[in-house]
Protein 1
Amino acid sequence: MENFADLDFAKLDLSREERTGFPEVVFCSGKEDQFLLSIYERLYMEHQEVFGTRASQAQYELVKSRFAEANYDPVSGILKITKNEDKKLIGNIAVCTAGTADIPVAEEAAQTAEFFGSKVNRVYDVGVAGIHRLLSRVDTIREANVVIAVAGMEGALPSVIGGLVKVPVIAVPTSVGYGASFEGLSALLTMINSCANGISVVNIDNGYGAGYIATQINRLASGVVC
């Protein structure tokens, strides 16, 4: 029977991990303080760990006041409580960025994958404006079971990587760029219209979604069925 915790303002899906292999994750942005704290408390009671995205410094301090072991990364906005920081990581996911401004979204993807048990190799600042940087790391990228390619501006990086590897590429457009990038829409359209094969695309700035899908692919490639 499906199980959820009714907090009146929220209904937390406690059986999600059993169904899908992943527990419920908290989208922190916009949540009222007491709602957020209550959600963390209930999920921690159930799983002894909680993973949250798009958290602020103030939200971290709030959760930290209740859970001393809470950990926050201001770059990615990840706010998590973990059972085991030294958990064994499986497989190999390469997370690549076109530029350093794309790192916040890339870190959301990378830390999502790591929380869910995947080994991640970060290959940052290898955009097409200096393609020799990418080519210098291509052997490392080719070792991965799946590649996450994060780019703003014109969003060309996933297409280039797609032509160099034989594994799936998850393209993540970011809202990095000048006016005509339309807050990531230009990169999104480039990625959707890529002529390279094996590319799938998530929403603008959706590092979490990319990390989740990459973990599913990595688990399958590593022979792990949850």
Protein 2
Amino acid sequence: MQFDLKTFLERGRTPYQTAFSLDLSGWDFPGYRVEAPVRVQFSALPTAEGARLTCGIEAETAGECARCLAPAKQAYAFCREWLVRPADLAGGELELPLLPGGLLPLDELVYQELVLEAEPLLLCQPGCEGLCPVCGRPKRDGCGCTDPQQSPSLDPRMAGLKRLLD
């Protein structure tokens, strides 16, 4: 879906609003994926200087916990706003992903804003302790390795690291 920003700046006298769902499941996100459709509300209001654009985004990211590799999800609901003047289209410094002719691809705009908003490292729960460095099991499940009497022998490859820590 594209919004003709140039035409709106030139002739837009009435507000423009749209709401839609966007499938970003095939898009490349850094360290997570977006499985469910993203809900978007986009509006453009004419102002004395140009136009006020507003984009509300609701999405859920999914992936593996950065500490224990368990499945993790994070929900996001946020809104972005821009004030655009006709001179901004010619200046080339506009932070919107404009196509030639002043067209604004809303799918690309939503993708960029979601990448900026989303945490690059997902956690299964706040304060996740990760994996035990000795047995490799999630610490939240309890592994017994913290008790020196029950601790299995240290992996020989980790001995050098242990000497540095001691």
Protein 3
Amino acid sequence: MHILHDNTLTPDNREKFIYLAGRYGQLVKFYNVEELCGDKVKELLDFMSNIPNLPQSTATCYRFLIPQIFYDLKKIVYLDSDIIINLDIAELWQIKLGNRPLAVVPEMQSYVPTNPLHYLCREGFVKAEDFFNAGILVMNLERLRREEKILTEGLQFNKAHPECDGNDQSILNYCFATQTVKLPQKFNVLVEYARMNNDFATADRICHYITSSHGRGYGLDAADAYNRLWLSYFVKTPWFDAETIGRLYAGVRCAQE
């Protein structure tokens, strides 16, 4: 397992990751992107400062730097931190990319009303059926190393279109939406939209607990199948302690008020 991080990763959390991986006979490697790619991160910061809608943290854009960080690899599976893999991850790894840069799950497969939600779709830059969620990607690093210029063009597009959602997902869609391998929904089930459609099956899926203005991705109500799945794993981690539970309770209570 490889973890991309910045200087905010504390020694305590680092040790907890190592301990947790060790319990399952796995190793974890850490990559401080601010140290490994300082010039590139500064370049991203300078560019992003002029784009009104991009998130203030550059961490969400670290996936752009993966081809350079893992310079000796041909392929990698990128996973956001807010997911639970409830299937054999080998299924995802075995996806054949050919010469395509990415394998992705289109958002429409997760019930997302893509047309009204995303500027790229509303304005006709990307077809709704092609727009994908960037939280889970199979990345063809050899191909992406040859496409560094097109990512710069994506950033420039966002700068020229302040109405754009303006995040890394929009940039990747602008650059690659028509060039992907489309994966089944089970590899990226967006939990909040699955709930809206009364789809509470959690087996043989990667559950993505993304949170937006529509609601919380996870909670403490164990009557909800997605909450139960999340809680069943949370209690096995070193972060299951009184302090964290207190913060979770306060966050859930605040969201309900």
